[in-house]
Amino acid sequence: MQSNDELRRNVKEELAWEPQLDPEAIAVSAEDGRVTLRGTVGSPREKRAATNAAQRVFGVVAVDNKLEVRLLNERRRDDADLRADVLQALMLNSLVPSTVDVNVDHGLVTLTGTANWNHQRIEAERVASTVVGTVEVLDEIELYHLPNPDPDAVEDAITRALRRSAALDARKLHVSTSSGTVTIKGHVRSWAEHDDAIAAAWAAPGVKDVHDLIVVDYDL
Predict the structure, then answer these.
(1) Which CATH number fits domain 74-143: 3.30.1340.30, 3.20.20.80, 3.20.20.70, 3.30.1490.20?
(2) At what angle do helices 44-55 and 4-17 cross, to 10 degrees?
(3) Could you tell me the pTM of the whole model?
């Protein structure tokens, strides 16, 4: 078991290893496997990269990302111009449905509208976060799928997907469904396994939300 200081140093080294980030602008604290990031970054993409970097470190069980996005003056944009550019970027991406709309308030980009699949919603958020001038992205896209599949069929499909995965021990995971919401709980050995399990849950048709109760347990 790593000490808090060892884990903090390892996270700092991983942040320095990530070329998108300036590790000197990020403060790291660690307590019992829970890591907190504070400081500033230049874009939502960098903020997300910091979370991903911290999660790659062995021993990290949770990441509380409190980084603030602060734009340089030359990157600040008028809200109307920023909205136009985000809409253009979304339109040019074939994965994002035309039913997605955008509102902007002082650099805060809010995505609204509907999509059929969660990967479309994730792609819209990714695209918006890369447009210069975006301070933060708030994803309010609703998932809409007709016809609604049978809950038992959704639960069975996700369970079988978990069992097929060579990276997961499906015996340690439990799936339940209710009104389009999937709850998945249990234990995994790493954040990579956690992300694989959540992705499997989102891949089922008709899923509108995923309640994540998975615990990362390095002692498995």
Answers:
(1) 3.30.1340.30
(2) 130
(3) 0.80
